[in-house]
Amino acid sequence: MRIKSSYLLLIFTAALLAVSACKTKKGAGSANVRTLSLKNPKSFYLSFAGKNPEDTLISAKELAMVKNVKIMSDGKEAKNITLKFKCTIIKTSGESAQLENNGTEFSSEIKDQLKGLQAGDKFSFEGIRIITAEGQQTSYPSIEFHVK
Predict the structure, then answer these.
(1) Are residues 72 and 11 in the same domain?
(2) Residue 109 carries which DSSP code?
């Protein structure tokens, strides 16, 4: 009888330790893991004259109506975004200009230059930096357009 009760006590203690170890292991695992609640960075792309990034041909008529560049994210126009870029214009006559712009609205100099482009001329947006309200900064590859 004494052996049975010692044996039962041993089994009970082992079971208690096993359950306790599982709880401790579970608790310790969650205590050692840090979860950072960061928003996933969004991906952005530029939309110029309603064109997608792969469509690089634009007519002089389309250029005359454009006033800004839109920053798109998830198929919608992104809000509260800062945009900085350089616009390089190269005309078939050999004339060229490089102008800086801050914001999505074009400066008056860029508007004037774009309105004066003709078939065969080209222009590009370079050094593009997008900065979100949260401070996320994204560099965007240069985009070149050809006037048709």
Answers:
(1) no
(2) H
